[in-house]
Amino acid sequence: MKELGEKLRAIRETLQLNQATIASRIGRQQRDISDLEQGKRKAVPTEYIHFLIGEGLDLNWLFSQEPLRNPDPYLLQYQKQRESGQIPTPGGNQPRTRMVPRHLLEEYPKRYGELVFQRMLPTVDLPGPELSGNPEDIRGFQMMDDSMLDTLAPYDWVISRRNATPLHQLPAGYVYIVVTRHQVIVGRLAQHRNGFDGLRMVFEQEAYPPLLIEERDVVEVWRGMARLSVTLTGSKKGLMRQLEGINASLEDIRDRLPKQH
């Protein structure tokens, strides 16, 4: 644990940040950062992991048994890439699309408006004119289950655009991500009945019955624009590495989500 703490301290110094700033960015106390760097804490908080991913750090190097050297070749190379702009940094000139991985879906309805939570979300560059515009209006949600097979498989990412249309005017037949006060729901919008009483969501698999979502429970609606499918290899290279791989392999992204007429 001492080696891990030394690496965390070296990373912080490379980023030219003090312990209080790191703690503020991840929603922790300064003593938590101090304890980590001194080897008094065994587990690195999830918020800290996502902060490091967002800064472009290689988690394989961080958690390896390789001791920290002075100067350390990896950190020297990382600093060089950062200064040359090869590693995107939060607050830079190129905003990136936020992605909501499945392990954060449960927290999203409660914390989507928190700046600390938003910084926990991994980000990625998405090509194509359909996905241009303000990155805050584009979001990726990872599928949690098989409710939308064969349109969407578990672990697929649904790339979505923020909805600005009144709920009673939403066109049916498209895939939507509906965020209620308690959960994130991915489904296809069914035709409204006479008299709007909420969003009726249907699913591809019969095991999942239709769901009526009352308007008062809806906090966000996103319309599905594209699907990203990834193959899980069991690698420990981290979610950011997986998302960066998507950038190099996106092909024919438009019209990936079929709609019903």
Write a compact overview of the structure shown:
Helix content is 29%, strand content 18%.
What report would you give on this structure?
- The chain is of the alpha+beta class and 261 residues long.
- The protein folds into two domains: 2-83, lambda repressor-like DNA-binding domains (434 Repressor (Amino-terminal Domain)), CATH 1.10.260.40; 97-249, Ribbon (Umud Fragment, subunit A).
- It is 29% helix and 18% strand.
- It has nine helices and nine strands.
- The protein has helices spanning 2-14, 19-26, 30-37, 46-54, 59-63, 73-83, 108-111, 115-120, 239-249; strands at residues 97-100, 123-124, 138-142, 157-162, 175-180, 184-189, 199-202, 211-213, 218-228.
- Strands 2-1-3-4-9-5-6-7-8 form a nine-stranded mixed β-sheet, covered by helices on one side.
- A hairpin with a 3-residue loop joins strand 5 (175-180) and strand 6.
- Helix 2 crosses helix 3.
- It is elongated and about 70 Å long.
- It starts with a helix and ends in a 12-residue tail after the last helix.
- Mean pLDDT is 81; it is low at 90-94, 231-237 and 247-257.
The total number of structural domains is 2
Question: Percent range for helical residues?
Answer: 25-40%
Number of beta-strand segments: 9
Q: Segments where pLDDT lies below 50 for 5+ residues?
A: 90-94, 231-237, 247-257
Major sheet: size, sense and barrel closure? 9 strands, mixed
Specify the CATH class of the largest domain: Mainly Beta
Structural class: alpha+beta
Q: What would the CATH topology of the largest domain be?
A: Umud Fragment, subunit A
Head-to-tail CA distance between termini: 58 Å
Widest sheet, order of strands = 2-1-3-4-9-5-6-7-8
* Known CATH architecture of the largest domain: Ribbon
